[in-house]
Each structure stands twice: as C-alpha cells, then as structure tokens.
Write a structure and sequence with these properties.
Distance between the termini of chain A: 35 Å
Shape of chain A: elongated
Radius of gyration of chain A: 26 Å
Number of helices of chain A: 10
Oligomer: homodimer
Order of helices and strands of chain A: EEEEEHHHEEEEHEEHEHHEEEHHEH
C-alpha cells in the first residue's frame, strides 16, 4: 500500500501520486466537479474529482483516497492553490444520516457524543498539548534520576479524612479507591527510591457538579528525598514547570493562540512567593468585597491574588506559603517544633490552585503526635506510620492536577472541555 | 548545603570534602575505629571514623554524613581502596530495634513490610528497569506521532463478559472498574486521534491467588488507525519492543546479569509468527503429554511452544496467529466474511503470553452481527457501537501487561516480586 501523506504535507508533493486518510469536512459540487475537503490531525486538504466518478461521501465519513497533487487556479473549485485530483476513494463504512451534534450544541449534549465532539481541531489540540506537556515532564524527571511509580488504586483504608470516598466490595471485605497516592509515594521514600513520579487516576466521591470538579481525574505526583524544606520543593517545581511550559510553547504556541486566543508565556524563575497573611492583605486591599475565610484563601481570593501578582509582577504563577498547620494535612512538617505554621505551599497559576506541596514530617514521634492533634485515628494508618520507624530520609513533594494545568495553559474554564471523558456525579458515560 | 555525592562517585572525588546520603548497610568496629557501609541508589561507600566521635547508627538508619575522601590501605577497616573519613553524621530519626524481615523471610511476610523489602538492590533494580522500559516505549510513541490517553477507570457498564468485575456504588447508581481501556481507545480512533497509547491501571476481580495473577495491574495499551490487518499491528509491536529491550539492555544489562543471572537479548525482527494449529502440532510433537484445549494453547502449551521456538530459531518471542474467532472477543475482525478465524494474535515472550492484539472490526453492521453471534447484549454497549456509525477508520491495536514484561525481562516467575505493591484476593495492604 502506498505510503500515507498527511494533509499538511500535500503542497510539498506537487505532481506526485499520493494517498490521504481522514474525515470528510465538507462536500460541495461545482459544475460537474465534486470538491471534498479532507481533514486529518495535521489540517485539511482539497480533493477534486468529476462528480460522476466519485460518489458524494457524507460529512464526517472516514475515507482513504488516492490521487495526484496538481496546482489549482481561479477556475477550480475552491480557487487558486493546490488540490488533489482524485482517482480512487474508499469509505470505511456508511455514515448515519444525521449527525447528533453540531458546533452550537450544549456542552452536556456534546459530551454524550464525545467521540464526535473531539473531532473539532480545537478539542484535538487539547490532547496534543497534554501529550507534549507529559512528555516534557517525564523528560525532566529522567534527566534528574526519577523512578516511575505505579501505586495501587485499591487501598485497605480511607486516606485523607474519610470524606468523598468511593468504596469497593472486595471479596469478603471492603476496599477504597485512592484519593491521592500520597502515602504510597512516601512509602517509596522509605524504600530508598529517592525520587519518584506518578501520573495516574485518583477518585473523589464529591457529589457537587461544578465546572471545576470531577469524580475521577489524573494526578501528577512527585516526591523527593534528602530535601530539608518546602523551599527546595518549590525550587524543583518551578524549574520543572518552566521546562514543561517551554515545550508546550515551542510545539503548540501558535495553534493555541489561533484556536484558544491565548498566548503561552514561559515563566521566569524564581516564581513569586507570598506568605498567606500577606496574600490575604493583598486581596483585602485590591478586592475589599472578597471576605476571606480565616487561615486560607477561597477560589475568589485566589483569583484576586493571581490578578494582583500578574499586574504588579507580570507573572502567571505565585506560590502561597506559611499556611496554618491546622488547615493542612497532619503529615506536613511544621516550621518549628510547636509552630502554628506548616512548611507547605499552594501554587496558583493564573489565579487557580494547581498544586499543594510540602516538606513532610519524617520523624516518627513528631508525626504520630501531629496525627493525634489532628484527630486522625492511628490504627488504620499503622502501615503508613511504620514507614517512619526504620530509617526514613527527610523528604517533600507535591501533586498537580493535569486538567487544571490544561485549563491554565489554554485559558479554558471548564474541566469537562479538557478531559477525554469526564466523570462527575451526574455523568458516568460514555 | 554542600552538594550531594553519590556512593558510586566517591572514588572520583579523592581528597575532596563530600556529603553522602543513604542507608546504613552495616556497622563494624575495628580497634577504636568505626566502619559504616552506606548504601544509596548507586551502590555502597565506606565511611570510617574514630569510634568515640561517631556513635554507632543502627542498620537501615537513614543518614547524612560529611567527610573527606582518602585512600585506604591494608591497615584500614575494610582493607585497601577508598574511604570517607567522617567528620559529621546525622541520623534522620531513631530506628526501631529489630528489623521485622530479613533476607530469608518468606515472600508474604516480606510483602507485609514491602518498603523494607524494596531496599534490596535487586528489588530496586526492578523499578529502575521498569522506568527505563516505559521511557523507551514513550520515546518510540513520540517519534511516531502518538497521543497519550487517560481514559476513565469508572465505567457505566461491565465490559468483556461481566465476569471478574469490581462494582462501585456510585451515588444512586452502580459503576464498574475497567478491566481494559479497550472500548475507550477505540473511541479515540473514532474521534480522529489516529494513534494513541495509555499506561494505566486495570482491575480484575479474580478470586484465584496465583503467582501470575493480581486484582490490579498496569496495562500498556496501543491503538493505531488506518491499518488494514493484524500483520501491520504485529509489525509495529515488534519494532517497538525491540526498541524497548535495546534500551533496557544498554542501561541495565550488566546489573540484570549480576543480580538476576539473566542475559537481556535484543530480539531480531521480524519475530517468528506461527498459526495456532501449527503451534499446537509443534507442542504435540515436542511435548506429547501436554493435551491442549481445543482452539487454544494453555499456559503449559505456551511454555512448550516458547521453548521450541527458542531451540529451533533462537528467538525469545513468537506471535501466535489464526485463533478461531469463537475464542476471541467479538470485536476482532475475521479473516474473511463468515470465516471461522479472527485477525488476531497473542505474543509469547519466553513462553509467557504478554500481549493480545488484533485488527478490530470497524464496520458497524458486521460488528453488531458479531456481537449478536457471541451473545453480547447490545443495549449496554450502545455507547460503544455508536462510535462506528459516523465514520470510523479501520484500526487495530494491542495490550501488554507491564509486570509480565518485567517477569520475562528478568526471568522472574512471581508477579508479586515485580509489582510495587501487589493486590490479590488475599492482599489489599500495605
């Protein structure tokens, strides 16, 4: 079989016989000639044939064509340029008469027919960007000696607080779906893996249906041994993210500008770092109507802080540090013994939280005391606490939501638009 | 803080002051001097200090030391070579008195304390190899224009046959954990993604506890559009696997030989391809006591065929083709309309099945007829069948079990040894 030519490469193959594969974007007839616009991953190509030679394929049919690349002039269907004079066209199967969705269909309806919705070049670009971003992440990890982890998604006990947990009947017992690989990546530190990453699914039985929540999403997790403060963890994350954004900008910057109207900026390092209390004061000063909850920022406060930093420092990112330990997980290390502050951070990207990270408490006695203070029952997490009894290095890490990253990169405000197949309380299919 | 030196690099830093981080492999005293062997990811280093300066750390303590690299002679603890004269040693925390496992502990006991078990260099190597193999896979995919997929693990209906399925109460409904991303990667073909891969967890509620089965494992999945037969899919898989094995051989061949006693052979392509009936005859001839089930090979038959091919052709791999369609999933294309044979294959690696693949049936009417013939109810899979009604290209693909690949590469015959944290009917922790 003749080698395939991609739509974007047709112009380079003038006078050659070519084979093209793709979808019928549109079909029109022009005085006895038929114009078919073929669409593939790289763009579109113009196919022309006598109307009596090639029967009219339906829109969105999958076709393979052979033909010869020739120059087109003003008299040709579609005007001057390049076209393929078709001598053979095979449809991979008949196409049902009416497409169930169109460009203007409401989101939930489009999601019902997601495989058709994803054919739009804008939607395909989301997953090209995702692929490039993950490739850049892994490249950076490989250069820095990381081990890839595949930790189990079925666990014997609830982690976090026991809320928003999916249960799974497991033979004669109960299992739970992980909400985060946190305990497992720390276990890898106790095992001497030193530096690990994992990109995998996590599950949250959150009954609220919003444009930012889902019951299943892809978490990007990193953990580093032999670091002594969250400052080192932030140092790592900002260099890593700059590498990722650079790759996306280089490979897709123009297409993102064209299809999403967003410029991809490669961030300067270091990223701005703002202690929470200062962040709260900045929000209060720039948006006095936004009353913030004690010891935290809410989503509106984060957006206001993001806008402030963008305005004052021209930066898309800001690390928020010095959260009260009471509002953070028990395993975050504190700045001093008995300190009310945790050695943790959130990272905001264009005003949206994309990461939580910290230096972890690796001293068994201190960790147990912190769990007790936070009211975490010890028995169910013995298997985790045991990791700190036989030599565990100081370590820290962070998690990043893959779809939140895509939302920030593309300026998209609905998580369902950047997820291959969204899962929410009201959506479990297709 | 001084930059860290890895144990393997100590000899290169003669006379320098260094900082090392790792675990205490052993401690011995020599006439007033203390010898500590430190172990990190790269190997071991010899630390020496006056016994009254450095208190004796316990075995497996996590330590950070500073000191000077000097030559050692016959009179030094450990004999001639290189040692670090320690001037500072910090333990990251106290270590409980008795290690719960040792080298001779039974497997299930070692798995209870997996984070300690994983500290053995042999076990760490498994995950270094896994990391390298996945990096090579993704590199090959990137070079060939693949998109990375993260398909949902929660699905609305059972796939496959409904057996071995975990259920998840999902708000007011029931969800199921995926046994394979099969339908979703095909959906990506209907969406125009053209070529996709996914490395992610799949779940099988198999109640049998064996050394080859688990209830959760990592599946490597590939799907390709615009291919017209399973021969093209095998062509792709063998080139891809050769690339992967080459990378493992180059990066870890020596260590695998040292710690597993196994030579990593980079396979020649094409791999041998044997139709099932011929494979059965070869098994019958070389191992007449192995009675094979009709239309298939069992595990012992696969091992016998693997041995036969290794002996006759010196090859670790063999594709088995031409299975009866009745023993294959309904979505495998048949060699001809109405043919009893499917366009599918299994790949055996050292006599173990690591892959099932096929050309998929993409013609809606034929697919529906095959589902009906196989007794698959249509209503629950409407969302899948719909993908073939609006233009779906011809496509094929395969899945590969990541741990089975590691078992083949390392000559290891228990899946629990090559899984970070094993999950089986009797094991849900740690």
């Amino acid at each position: 079989m003749m080698e395939r030519t991609m739509a974007a490469d047709v112009a380079k193959r003038m006078d050659a016989r070519v084979r093209l594969c793709g979808w019928v974007d549109r079909v029109t007839d022009h005085q006895g000639r038929r114009l078919v616009v073929l669409r593939d991953r790289t763009g579109t190509a113009r196919l022309v044939a006598p109307a009596d030679v090639v029967s009219a394929p339906r829109r969105e049919a999958a076709i393979e064509v052979t033909g010869t690349v020739v120059p087109a002039d003003a008299g040709d269907p579609g005007g001057p340029g390049v076209m393929v004079l078709v001598d053979g066209l095979v449809e991979s199967g008949p196409v049902a008469a009416d497409l169930p969705i169109g460009v203007g269909s409401p989101l939930e309806h489009r999601l019902d027919w997601r495989f058709l919705d994803l054919r739009r070049p804008r939607n395909l670009l989301v997953f090209e960007v995702q692929t490039t971003a993950e490739r850049a992440m892994r490249h950076y990890w490989a250069e820095h000696g990381f081990i890839e982890l595949h930790s189990p998604k079925l666990r014997p006990n609830p982690n976090r607080t026991g809320r928003e947990l999916f249960t799974v009947p497991y033979f004669d017992r109960q299992a739970y779906l992980v909400q985060s690989p946190q305990f497992y990546k720390q276990m890898a530190m106790a095992a001497g893996f030193e530096r690990v990453f994992e990109i995998g699914p996590v599950f949250r039985a959150n009954p609220t249906a919003t444009s930012r929540h889902d019951t299943e999403f892809t978490s990007v997790d990193v953990e580093l041994s032999w670091v002594h403060s969250h400052e080192e963890v932030m140092d790592f994350e900002e260099r890593w993210l700059r590498h990722v954004v650079s790759a996306v900008q280089a490979d897709h910057g123009d297409e993102i500008a064209r299809l999403f109207g967003v410029e991809v900026h490669v961030p300067e390092i270091p990223f701005p770092r703002v202690p929470l209390e200062e962040g709260r004061r900045l929000v209060e000063a720039s948006a006095p109507h936004l009353i913030q909850p004690p010891g935290d920022l809410d989503a509106a406060g984060e957006r206001a802080l993001g806008r402030h930093v963008a305005r004052e420092q021209g930066h898309d990112f800001v690390f928020v540090t010095d959260y009260p330990e009471a509002t953070r997980p028990f395993y975050h290390m504190r700045t001093q013994p008995g300190s009310p502050l945790a050695m943790g951070f959130d990272l905001l990207w264009k005003g949206m939280e994309v990461t939580t990270g910290s230096q972890r408490e690796h001293r068994y006695d201190v960790l147990v005391a912190q769990a007790e203070e936070h009211g975490v029952p010890l028995d169910p997490i013995r298997y985790y606490l045991d990791c700190f009894r036989f030599g565990c290095p100081p370590h820290g890490g962070f998690g990043l939501g893959l779809t939140r990253m895509l939302m920030s990169l593309l300026g998209e405000d609905d998580v369902r638009e950047v997820t291959f197949l969204h899962r929410g309380p009201d959506r479990l299919s297709p």
